[in-house]
Design goal:
It comes from Halomarina oriensis. It is a single-pass membrane protein. Keywords: Membrane, Signal, Transmembrane, Transmembrane helix. The protein is mainly beta. The chain has a five-stranded mixed β-sheet with strand order 1-22-21-20-19, with no helix packed on it. The chain has a four-stranded antiparallel β-sheet with strand order 2-33-32-31, with no helix packed on it. The longest helix is centred in the N-terminal third of the chain and has 4 residues. The chain starts with a strand and ends with a strand. The N terminus is likely disordered.
Length: 420
């Protein structure tokens, strides 16, 4: 595809005027979000912003909960904790511990829950401000193993670890990153397969805030590990060797297929820029100039046309759908009339009709469900507590459609059910 620049999003205002939605009213054909439960995990802190983790079957739900140091609130070893919540009512089933001197807002990352070795038993894996990647037994909360993130310069993880089946060991592996650019692959039993750093790959002053991306980005039949940062991104082969490096803002990295060649495309940027690069070479496919600061984490074919859309929240209260093949805007919807920041959208079939809905949260405490094809508002829910992260879909009641787990800033988790 020929490299080009488009003023995406901003240049299609006239075409989008008919689908801009103001306020939170429900149009005909919408539904409602019903609160199922609210967890008893409050904190004197409205800055909790690491999302909830859940197993694929929705049976294991784990929330990272953090307190902030305060002279009037002595910290304990459970002020910062991973709390397993019962899917049926949100009751706390177990808690992990964090030393008080390691407890602050980023003490624990969003966890990943998975059966790594196929034995039917899941692990809960999270990075910690203890300079560690830690795995816990999902049933008991007991620590199973821990791996040091950086053996010479202590660090912590910000983005969620990624579970992937790399050709480096039996079973599935855990890919981790630290905020300072450390990267590693760990087996199901906690053995380190390889370590690397973005600095060693030629990037300096790196800050990594998103999860590692694992996909066959170059089309060779084997998966690669992609880690983005403020100064660039690095694509690692499965064995840890560097495939290629690209400089330029890459805090956000999403893998997708945007053309007809075997290689995938990587959508990268820092919120102010959006560029599609070829997964095999890093060559620019297209670049866009958004008229808003974007937050995004994934793609989906929300309108069923066979081509994926990138869904992004903006810092001034909107949600955008962007065509991944060229960067053109498809629709935009206002979900916060007051212009509250909207966090990275998540897609899920919340009504069981086979189509993907777009679910977004905003800092004003609102959760909004949008139709994936045109951005019309289907339902909203509001709680007067800030939200600083995305929702987690999980089928809590085994009815075949996911519920929505919302991490509020005060430490509590709210489970919502969408009904048409």
């Amino acid at each position: 595809m020929r490299a080009r620049t488009v003023a995406a999003v901003g240049l299609v205002v006239a075409a989008l005027a008919g689908v801009v939605v103001l306020g939170v009213g429900l149009p005909a054909g919408g539904g409602e979000l019903t609160e199922l439960w609210t967890s008893d995990t409050p904190r004197q802190n409205e800055r909790n912003h690491h999302a909830v983790g859940a197993s694929e079957d929705g049976r294991v739900v784990v929330a990272p909960v953090a307190e902030v140091p305060d002279p009037g609130t002595p910290l304990t070893n459970t002020s910062c904790t991973l709390a397993r919540l019962a899917p049926e009512d949100g009751a706390v089933q177990w808690r992990t511990t964090v030393p008080p001197d390691r407890c602050f807002t980023h003490a624990l990352s969003e966890p990943v829950v998975a059966d790594l070795d196929g034995d039917g038993e899941s692990l809960v894996v999270s990075t910690s401000y203890e300079n560690a990647l830690i795995a816990y037994d999902a049933e008991t909360g007991e620590e199973r193993w821990r791996v040091t993130l950086n053996e010479s310069d202590p660090s912590f993880g910000y983005g969620r670890p990624t579970v992937a089946d790399l050709p480096v060991s039996p079973g599935r592996d855990v890919v981790f990153s630290s905020i300072h650019g450390d990267v590693g692959v760990v087996t199901a039993n906690g053995s380190v397969v390889w370590r690397a750093s973005l600095a060693d790959a030629g990037l300096d002053d790196t800050i990594v805030q998103q999860r590692p991306v694992v996909a066959d980005v170059d089309g060779d039949g084997e998966q690669e590990v992609v880690v983005g940062s403020g100064s660039g991104l690095v694509v690692f082969e499965a064995d840890g060797s560097v495939a290629w490096t690209r400089t330029g803002p890459s805090q956000y990295v999403v893998s997708t297929q945007a053309d007809d060649d075997p290689a995938r495309e990587l959508l990268v940027g820092d919120g102010r820029t959006l560029t599609a690069v070829d997964g095999a070479s890093g060559a620019v496919q297209w670049s866009a100039e958004p008229d808003a600061i974007l937050r995004y984490r994934g793609v989906a074919d929300g309108d069923g046309d066979g081509t994926a859309e990138l869904y992004a929240g903006t810092l001034d209260g909107e949600v955008l759908a962007i065509d991944v093949t060229n960067g053109d805007g498809e629709w935009r919807t206002t979900v916060s009339a007051d212009g509250a920041p909207v966090w990275s959208p998540v897609t899920a079939d919340v009504d069981g009709d086979g189509d993907q809905e777009v679910v977004v949260t905003s800092r004003d405490g609102t959760v909004t469900v949008l139709a994936g094809d045109d951005g019309r508002v289907l339902a909203t829910y509001e709680r007067s507590v800030p939200i600083e992260t995305h929702v987690t879909p999980a089928d809590l009641d085994d009815d075949g459609t996911p519920e929505l787990l919302v991490r509020y800033g005060d430490g509590r988790v709210v489970a919502l059910d969408y009904g048409a």
